[in-house]
Amino acid sequence: MKDSREIERRALAVGKWSNLFMAFAGILTAWLSRSDAMLVDGLYSAVNFVSAIAAARIGARVGLPPTKSRPWGHDFDEVLYVTFRSLILIGILVFAAIVSGNKIWTFFTGGEVPELVFGPIVFYSVTIVLICLALAINYHRALRKTGKRSALLKTEARAALIDGALSVGAGAALLSLPFLEDTPLGPYVPIGDAVIVVVLILAIIWQPLSSFRATLADLAGVSAPGSTYAKVLRAARDLCRDKGYTLHRAAVPQAGRMHYAAIYLDPAKPVVAEEIDGFQSELSERLEQSLGPTRIEIIVTARSGLPSSPPLLPQKQ
Known about the structure:
Layout: H1 2-33, H2 36-61, H3 75-108, H4 119-145, H5 151-176, H6 192-204, H7 206-219, H8 226-243, E1 246-251, E2 254-255, E3 258-266, H9 273-290, E4 294-300
Parallel strand pairs: 3-4
Antiparallel strand pairs: 1-3, 2-3
Helix pairs in contact: 1-2, 1-4, 2-3, 2-5, 3-6, 3-7, 4-5, 5-6, 8-9
């Protein structure tokens, strides 16, 4: 676990400073070229830089033992990080859409739209694409070394690829605008930059929306995917059979890379607490091999169905 955290920390550190450079480069290029598309690209990198700082701190805490103030550990910090990061990206894309929409409105209402300067865009696009490709490779290598269980690395690897694709798409589209001057689209070249931004937003908005939807499910305590639930149920059933216990059911929510498993069982015979602790430890070892980090709670009960909630207040007679 310690080695995995160190690998994750190093990968996030490289990403942090790379994104800071790309953020400054994007904003500077946007100012020099008067391009909204370059501004969106720079702001996207700025979000990645701030996110990398938060991700490094969260990654160091995920998996730590529970404390009095955090009885379930720090595992949900990872989910909160991905949730708010997705919301920030959605906000930036909405802002970019408003800016571009305003430029298009200005053009069609007879207002003046600044002319693009293409020189800085060429240099920026090539540089950023190479950096994003290197970052994505670095994140994927770190993700593989850590067992592909880090939601932080998965999110950052995806963000690096999207940032690179954003730079490629924006750069190629912007540099192609001068070739449209002598075509029927020539009159609309001044708003080509704004149209490109809108197209890029429509192409990438699904990523933060998808991440936001997935993390909301984790925060709501929705059951883990069927394949994950099946592994927990199979391991618990096999172990119960070995011990002579009766397995009633299992509840398996997930928080980022950490799984939670509540196992409801009936020993069907007198047992001491030490035996239940041993069952929990053995099940934890089995699930560690098949699922990864899993926090397990054993609930000894004779009820075979889902428990009903007791009334909050005494019923009137």
